[in-house]
Write a structure and sequence with these properties.
Blueprint: E1 2-4, H1 11-18, H2 22-30, H3 32-40, E2 42-47, E3 52-54, E4 62-68, E5 71-74, E6 85-87, E7 92-93, H4 95-100, E8 107-110, E9 117-123, H5 138-162, H6 185-210
Amino acid sequence: MEIRPLRKFPRDQLERLLLTVPFYKAVKQQDNWQFEVLLQHSHIACFSPGEIVLQRGESDPWLYFLLKGQLLVYPDEQCQGEPLNVITPGEVFGDLSMLVGSARTATLVADPAGRDVMVFASDFRVFGDLEATRPISLQTKLTYYRNTVHHLRWKLEVYRSQNPQHSFANKHRQVKLYTGPKDTPEELHALHAQAQALARLLLEWNGEFGSGAMH
């Protein structure tokens, strides 16, 4: 792994890379100051094919977004057999363990048959408590959790479509959507609760895949 400070990248190149990430693209469009705050607490990490990016059982406060390359997801440290999942550019990873307050639940490897991997890493500690509005604003937190809930529901719908008869298939549809006033602390708390519930369901599905119980 090679960690590269953002100052080593031409600004236009950095912004082009981050346009592939829905969260950063949205923040850049709505509040440039917030975009700059996030950059101050971020770096880029590069990995060679076959290199481990995240290790199951480890803990850290970083949130990751894949910029280039492809990652293979395995349920354990051996990384044998078929991967549990594949992560492609623009996707977030490392968020499940932070949402549920656990160590990393999977091992991620830069695709041995692919090219070098480039990852954008942000220190999630800058978000602070859910109620705090500095340095990360309510609007930026809402943007993050809206994106997170959307991403988790999409993943769960994919699992449902692949295994429609499984007992987990419709559980995520029982997690209620927020219908109250928008752009409020109430919406943020509701989105946070949704994200936690959906993350736990996704981990349940991943546990089933990892155990070999699903095909």
